[in-house]
Amino acid sequence: MKPQPNQRLSSQAMAFVLAGGRGSRLNELTDRRAKPAVYFGGKTRIIDFALSNALNSGIRKMAIATQYKAHSLIRHMQRGWNFFRAERNEYLDILPASQRVDESKWYLGTADAVAQNIDIIEDYDVRYVVILAGDHVYKMDYEVMLRQHVDTDADVTIGCLTVPREEASAFGCMAVDASGQITEFLEKPKNPPGMPGDPDHSLVSMGIYVFDWQFLRELLLRDAEDPNSSHDFGHDLIPQIVKFGKAMAHKFSESCVTSGLETEPYWRDVGTIDAFWQANIDLTDFTPKLDLYDNAWPIWTYAELVPPAKFIHDEDGRRGSAVSSLVAGDCIVSGSEVRNTLLFTGCRAHSFSTLDYVVALPYADIGRKAQLSRCVIDRGVQIPQGLVVGEDPEEDAKWFRRTEGGVVLITQAMLDKRAAVLG
Glucose-1-phosphate adenylyltransferase/Bifunctional protein GlmU-like C-terminal hexapeptide domain: which residues (predicted)? Predict the structure, then answer.
């Protein structure tokens, strides 16, 4: 029996967030933390976007599957997402790969991460499961997608982005008919299919799936017994449903949440240093592509109790100032010039230093007379006095990680190695 039209489907759904990936393309930023735990936007972590979307959509049952270097992610969940109350039928479970099914098995793939926790999901007593990736930045109302899933009587509904056809080869692509039913699912094809009526654009997967739980449960159990399966949604389960069942595409533009300032649907995979730097710097624009000031769709996170930001010194050449920048709490800009920059909680910028197009993660300390541009500074890094980054590409690449896009990643280990060589 289908739910009544006035029922919120999100109240009958759970969100299962896949947050076990390392995110190796972020290089040293994920040496100590999983990609979903990487900082973003001045106060938040990447995973906060998927969880906030679920919460704002009305979903009050969530599970987060973790695996790679999960300590900082688990600690963030415990500190920032501990407000769920079981007596209100709300749950947030952290599900580390704990060899519950087999002592030799960690999570083997995205589908296996769900399959190993079937008994826990059963205890939620839910009708629908929304599978989410924990490493993308976007705002989306999952209730809209759930409603389409029910109205079309789909076996699976897949969240899709509309991208120019020439860019689609980097994604899992879908060919669809006029009704939106997926007729073919192609993993990173050389010749992506166009959309009906719009051959210059393609539909690509966001890694968001809606299932009826009982259907997914049976599918996972069969897949777990298949020795030839890689136990992955994109590689194994979705192509099977496309071939033998009913898979529907859901366009992100239909459920993207905007405040009125955003001019187009915003979704980012900040999976490289260049993409991570650019997405953060974009927030400093006069009208950013992503509105973090939308109180109607807040991005929930761990809100640290810290004092306000402070700007000190007011003399020529030594004026604490920030222009076109985001400055979080507990930052002190002491006689430093900050432009087009994002300073996370607790950063310090000392006298006569300049920062231009810099993303400084929490508690970074920029020494006097440092001149920094186009760089990402890892958490807690102590930038030495007089360090110059962003002017000499060869010198930057000698000590730090310099990307193809010219962005420099600075970690404490890199600085320590540099200091040991230079004495």
Answer: 307-410
342 close to 280: Cβ distance less than 8 angstroms: yes
User: What is the sign of the dihedral through the CA atoms of 95, 100, 105 and 108?
Assistant: negative
Tell me which residue of 129, 137, 120, 175 sits closest to 39, measured CA to CA.
Answer: 137
d(CA 159, CA 68): 25
CB atoms within 10 A of CB 397: 12
Question: Residue 163 gets which letter from DSSP?
Answer: E
CA distance 345 to 367: 17
d(CA 72, CA 292): 23
Which residues are 129's β-sheet partners?
Answer: 14, 211
Amino acid at 284: T
> 353: left (phi > 0), else alpha (psi -120 to 50), else beta?
beta
205 labeled part of a ligand binding site: yes
The answer to whether 187 is annotated as binding is: yes
Task: Indicate whether 307 pLDDT > 60.
Answer: yes
- Give the residue from 210, 213, 198, 51 showing the smallest Cα distance to 135: 51
Using DSSP, state whether 180 is helix, strand or coil: coil
Per residue in 385-404, pLDDT tens?
A: 999 999 999 999 999 999 99
Question: What does the alpha-carbon distance between residue 327 and residue 360 come to, in Å, rounded to a whole number?
Answer: 10
Residue with tokens 């109205």: 151
Identity of the amino acid at 395 = E
Average pLDDT, rounded, for the chain: 93
SS (H, E, C) 219-231: HHHHHHCCCCCCC
Collect all residues with Cβ–Cβ distance below 8 Å to 32 and sequence separation of at least 6: 69, 72
Closest to 279 (Cα-Cα) out of 263, 287, 267, 294: 267
Q: Taking residues 339-344, report their average pLDDT.
A: 98
Is there a binding annotation on residue 251? no
- Could you tell me which residues come within 8 angstroms of residue 376 by beta carbon, excluding any fewer than 6 positions away? 29, 273, 276, 277, 358, 359, 361, 407, 408, 409, 410
Q: Is 172 annotated as a binding residue?
A: yes
